[in-house]
Amino acid sequence: MIRKLIQRVLNRSAEPEAYGIEAHGIRRESISHGSRKVCEALQAQGFHAYVVGGAVRDLMLGVLPKDFDVATNASPEDVHRCVRRSRLIGRRFKLVHALFGDEIVEVSTFRASSPGEVDEETGRVLRDNVYGTREQDAERRDFTVNALYYDPHTQTVLDFHRGVRDLQKKLIRVIGDPRARFREDPVRMLRAVRLAAKLGFQIEPKTRAPIAELADLIENVPPARLFDEMLKLLLSGHALQSVHRLRSEGLHHGLLPLLDVILEQPLGEKFVNLALAQTDERVRQDKAVSPAFLFAALLWHEVLAAWRARETAGEPRIPALYAAMDDMLDKQTDKLAIPRRFTVTMKEIWSLQPRFEIRSGRRAFGMLEHPRFRAGYDFLALRAESGEAPGELAEWWRRFQDGTPEERSELLLAAPGGAEARKRRRRRRGGAKPQDAGPPPVLAD
């Protein structure tokens, strides 16, 4: 306890370092309209208000932030009173969402760093909802580069934990004792990896040292919260680097079953790398990304392995696939609570894969009408690019979906079994049949 108190005293600056605009380069026009208006409204009533966290960090690095958060010494009720279009949210710890057209600014009251309810076995903080001072609010933040406070009125950045210097050194450094902070909240280890991958930074050696040892604490994080953090990582635009950093830090075990095994297999690793790289490219181009498609890709080889095992054991092909999907998702739910709205789509994408192998008339046209056809086809194309599925199959479906009626007819005729099926149809429609042949057979496309 004494050691922890000494560490906090050493880490806490009596006065923050103040950087003017010539040092940090952030003009008030650089921050969003909504966050600027919130700060002005609160400061007009005598409160302190700052743009905080990742927005300040990104602006200093020349990156346009996606969100702007504000921290203040005003209570949530005071914020709600000062900002006309706002609403109170949260139960245990109230926040305010200030509304400015399409922009939502999250406003939080300064919080204290003293832990509330703590799990004695793991050291994880279960409850931490205490209002505090600006200095305490800075101390409870995770990394030094996130503990920066920008005042749009004075255009000054306040730095309580030498975050500006770490930005210049390209270092991710935890505030306080790394071992204690990771025990308080094991998700901080994932955040360190995500932030380092996003910014192209290194994790400071003392911050990195206990990660491998404490990696098992991730098991104690509620699955729903773990899913949210993994989704942020995978949709960060730097998922490929993040996943490989998770692996190098020993944090991948238990998060996604495939990361334990597939990254060790050349074919599986190529497939996963392609899926992550394509997702990163879409994020960087500001295109829509489907979390369901991404998780379907990440978990596919686990489903594939179980499917093949069931087939080898003698189960029928399609029932074996559905059983493999259910078993894998049941196992995954214990680790990562993937919402049902995603798992339904994931199963549809997976179940379409064997159906692409059947290229006969009614079934092929029926596939085009399937609501998940496009996602299923993109998944097939990804499999083909990685070498898992025949390239000819993906190319056939690309031409079929884009082709004219005449081109589609030719494709159906040229598909495996297409010519023979055409002959059977011709005989059935107009060809003479022997007197004793009986009724023609019923053929299913």
Tell me briefly what this model is:
The protein is of the alpha+beta class. Helix content is 54%, strand content 10%.
Structure characterization notes:
This protein is of the alpha+beta class. It has a domain of 220 residues: Beta Polymerase, domain 2. The chain is built from 23 helices and twelve strands. The strands form three sheets. Strands 1-10-9-2-3-6-5-4 form an eight-stranded mixed beta sheet. Strands 7-8 form a two-stranded antiparallel sheet. Strands 11-12 form a two-stranded parallel sheet. Helix 9 crosses helix 13 and helix 16 crosses helix 18. The longest helix has 22 residues. The N and C termini lie far apart (74 Å). The N terminus and C terminus are likely disordered.
Label this structure with key terms.
445 residues, alpha+beta, Beta Polymerase, domain 2, eight-stranded mixed beta sheet, two-stranded antiparallel sheet, 23 helices, 10% strand, disordered N terminus, disordered C terminus
User: Major sheet: size, sense and barrel closure?
Assistant: 8 strands, mixed
Named CATH architecture of one domain = 2-Layer Sandwich
CATH topology of one domain: Beta Polymerase, domain 2
The N- and C-terminal alpha carbons lie at a distance of: 74 Å
Annotate the secondary structure layout.
Blueprint: H1 2-11, E1 17-19, H2 21-24, H3 33-44, E2 49-52, H4 54-60, E3 69-72, H5 76-82, E4 86-89, E5 95-100, E6 103-109, E7 117-118, E8 125-127, H6 134-139, E9 148-151, E10 156-159, H7 163-169, E11 171-172, H8 178-184, H9 187-199, E12 202-203, H10 205-208, H11 211-214, H12 223-234, H13 239-249, H14 257-261, H15 266-284, H16 291-312, H17 317-333, H18 340-355, H19 361-369, H20 373-386, H21 391-402, H22 405-414, H23 418-430
Parallel strand pairs: 3-6, 11-12
Antiparallel strand pairs: 1-10, 2-3, 2-9, 4-5, 5-6, 7-8, 9-10
Helix pairs in contact: 9-12, 9-13, 15-16, 15-20, 16-17, 16-18, 17-18, 18-20, 20-21
